[in-house]
């Protein structure tokens, strides 16, 4: 299945604003098998956990406190989202926040499930 990977940080205001919408995206597409992974950049696991608990978001998190993962992916800023298709080819590489509640997002994801 397609795999969105969102690179974010608890200290990034734009990331913080985007996180609840990512949760809604994951819930909206859960029945289709969409898995969403977040990568917490330059945060301690405790900072990440405390923030996500505070806002009630439950998404899978990979911790990247030393910023090694973002370097391997060529991510230069947070938030950045990469969406892989079911063959794990990059279909979207977007830097900056995204309105995950927009109908256009669902239209872009739909073909990736075919």
Topology:
Elements: E1 3-8, H1 13-29, E2 37-41, H2 45-55, E3 61-64, H3 68-73, E4 80-84, E5 90-95, H4 103-109
Parallel strand pairs: 1-2, 2-3
Antiparallel strand pairs: 1-4, 4-5
Please give a handful of descriptors for the protein shown.
single chain, 114 residues, alpha/beta, 5-stranded mixed sheet, 4 helices, 5 strands, 23% strand, globular
Beta-strand percentage? 15-25%
Can you write the helix and strand succession as a string?
EHEHEHEEH
Q: Biggest sheet: strands, sense, closure?
A: 5 strands, mixed
Per DSSP, the total helix count is 4
- Terminal residue distance: 9 Å
Structural class: alpha/beta
Helix residue percentage:
25-40%
Low-confidence stretches: none
The multimeric state of the shown protein is single chain
Shape: globular
Strand line-up across the major sheet: 3-2-1-4-5
Q: Care to count the β-strands?
A: 5
Radius of gyration using CA atoms only:
13 Å
**Mean pLDDT figure:** 95
Explain this structure to me?
- The protein has 114 residues and is an alpha/beta fold.
- It has helices at residues 13-29, 45-55, 68-73, 103-109; strands at residues 3-8, 37-41, 61-64, 80-84, 90-95.
- Strand 1, helix 1 and strand 2 form a beta-alpha-beta unit.
- The N and C termini lie close together (9 Å).
- The model has no long low-confidence stretch (mean pLDDT 95).
């Amino acid at each position: 299945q397609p795999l969105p990977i969102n690179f974010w940080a608890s200290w990034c205001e734009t990331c913080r604003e985007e996180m609840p919408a990512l949760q809604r995206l994951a819930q909206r597409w859960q029945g289709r098998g969409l898995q969403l992974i977040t990568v917490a950049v330059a945060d301690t696991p405790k900072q990440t956990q405390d923030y996500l608990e505070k806002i009630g978001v439950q998404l899978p998190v990979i911790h990247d406190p030393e910023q090694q993962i973002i370097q391997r992916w060529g991510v230069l800023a947070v938030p950045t989202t990469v969406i892989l298709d079911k063959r794990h080819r990059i279909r979207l590489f977007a830097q900056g926040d995204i309105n995950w509640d927009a109908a256009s997002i669902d239209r872009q994801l739909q073909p990736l499930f075919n």
